[in-house]
Design goal:
Blueprint (H helix, E strand, L loop, with lengths): L14 H21 L4 H16 L1 H10 L8 H21 L1
């Protein structure tokens, strides 16, 4: 039983949502293999590198909570992450 005022427990994703996620992942792997001609080892390296930011997410949260920038905890880190993302997408756009 949950305490009064505590958030409701999260429900697991429905099988349909998990299926759609798996389907899109499968399509991504086929695109990388068939359209870009990558070998399975290269695909796995690429997908592991893409998942790396999720691995450091707890560390990012701890740092943003413990080290304020100009008196703010979250906003400067979000702006910095957006700038890094913009630079990364711009770099990818320049490759095509």
């Amino acid at each position: 039983m949950a305490l009064p005022g505590s958030p409701a427990p999260r429900r697991a994703a429905s099988p349909a949502k998990r299926g759609f996620r798996a389907l899109s992942g499968l399509a991504t792997q086929f695109f990388l293999k068939d359209s870009l001609g990558l070998e399975p080892a290269a695909i796995q390296s690429l997908l592991a590198t893409a998942a790396l930011p999720w691995s450091v997410k707890p560390l990012y949260g701890l740092v943003s909570d413990a080290v304020p920038i100009r008196g703010q905890h979250r906003k400067p880190y979000l702006v910095l992450a957006a700038a890094v993302g913009l630079a990364a997408w711009s770099g990818l756009a320049g490759l095509t």
